[in-house]
Amino acid sequence: MSDTALPLFGEDEGTGRVGVDDGFATAHRFALDAHSWVEHVPGWLSGAETLFEELLAASGWEQRRRWMYGEHTIEPRLTAEHHDLTTAPPALQEAARALTAHYGVSYDRLWLNHYRDHRDSTGWHGDGASTRRRECIVPVLSLGASRRFLVRPTEGGSSSTFRPLAGDLVVMGGRCQTDWRHCVPKETSPTGPRISVNFAASSQALPG
Ligand SMILES: O=C(O)CCC(=O)C(=O)O
Ligand SMILES: [Fe+2]
Which residue numbers delimit the Fe2OG dioxygenase domain (predicted)? Predict the structure, then answer.
């Protein structure tokens, strides 16, 4: 018997090495209703700070515009998209493989959101890219500053609040993309930058 504490994620937290917990040991699932759920996996990824700095420095961030209400609006965040997983940083490819093995969904692309500060946000929406099937599983990894992640019924009603920290995973499952909406609201007090990694699967995407 050794009295040495075993590192939770099989790697030394202190080294900053990036790795994920293949066992999803900290996962807690919250039922939203009979068909939909959100799973929070605190500390799923170790070395979150290292990965955050790497992604922030990477090229490929773009400012997207969209045509809304008869005018062009600038999205209040930056986005970087990897349509082909093999172009993503190796740590994210490894994360996608672990998600695929655990949830049984083949994650083959991803996009990143960069919230530069508390004024950046994502409005209420369902991920259209993940509605091919009635039930979809959509994982989102948080890095950097903690921001609120809200979920509420599509028909309206009160919202549930999740507060993922750096390295945490929030996974939307069941009918979350149709019966429910999610958002990352602006905050009134200053926060540092945050990056979210949104994993997507062609098998869950609408054709075309
Ligand atoms: O940044 C997040 O936590 C979620 C972002 C999101 O829902 C999206 O980009 O579709
Ligand atoms: Fe989304």
Answer: 106-203
Contact 191, 117 (CB under 8 A): yes
Length, in residues, of the chain? 208
Distance CA 33, CA 18 (A): 34
ipTM of this predicted structure: 0.99
Q: Could you give all domains of the chain from N- to C-terminal order, each with its CATH number?
A: 35-204 (2.60.120.590)
Q: Which atom of ligand 1 is nearest to the CA of 115?
A: 1
Q: For residue 121, report the distance from its CA to the centre of ligand 1, in Å.
A: 9
Residue nearest to atom 2 of ligand 1 (CA): 196
How far is Cα 100 from Cα 109, in angstroms, rounded to an integer?
12
pTM over 0.90: yes
